Each structure stands twice: as structure tokens, then as C-alpha cells.
Amino acid sequence: MTGYLNILLRLAIWFLLTADFGIANTIIGVCVALLLPRRANPGALKDWLHAIGEIIIAIPQAFIEAIEIMVRPHRYEAMTMEHVKPQRTPGLIFLDIFVITFTPKTIVLKYHEEGLYEVHRIQRRKQS
């Protein structure tokens, strides 16, 4: 089941890159998604469902944060290091970075191979 989710993720990235839903492009995208190398240990289905749930929650959160930024300006910045959840596949790490970056107040600047995300945040008040 998680193999299908990996293929769907690759195909979604293909469509985002090409912005073409034609038959020929879809066939090429499926071929590329199938030919890209796979990892030996695919993520557990539970991890994928949790990541999809986080994406669903991030959509309204992004709208709320955008309105909050317009109504009450955020003048302070902070850099934090967040740990990657254990046993994450590259596909799940990509989805984690996507969720963090999707919301207007945060962006992932760098992924460290040691299992850390470097996250830039804007805040209303300076944290002590």
C-alpha cells in the first residue's frame, strides 16, 4: 500500500513540475514514477495517513495565519532546529517539509542529514 502512495507522491510532484495533465505527459509521469529507485523500507501506512492528516490540518491553519499576519503584524524572527520524526522515508520527510513551509509563518531553510530541520519563524513578540 505504501508503494502506491510513493508512486502517487512522485506523480503529483511530476504534475506540479510540468503543469500539464495531457495524456502523453501523464504516461511519461507514470513511467518516471515507476523507474525512479525505491528505498528498501517503505514508510508504514500509519505514518503516511498521519502525514496526510497533517496536510489536511495545515490548509485551514495557513489561511488563519495569513489573516493573522495581515491584522496583527509579526515583527520578530526566530531560527529553530526541529528534529525529524524517527524512521522517516524520503517521501515522508518531503511531506514534513511541505507542511512546515506551507504555513505562512514558517519555512524550512535546510534539512540536515543528522535528522534536523532548520526552521525560520516569524513571531508577534520576542521570545525570551
From TrEMBL:
Annotated keywords: Membrane, Transmembrane, Transmembrane helix
UniProt entry tagged with the keyword Transmembrane helix: yes
Residue ranges crossing the lipid bilayer per the database entry: 12-36, 48-71
Protein name in UniProt: Cation:proton antiporter
Species: Acaryochloris marina (strain MBIC 11017)
Lineage, opening ranks: Bacteria, Bacillati, Cyanobacteriota, Cyanophyceae, Acaryochloridales
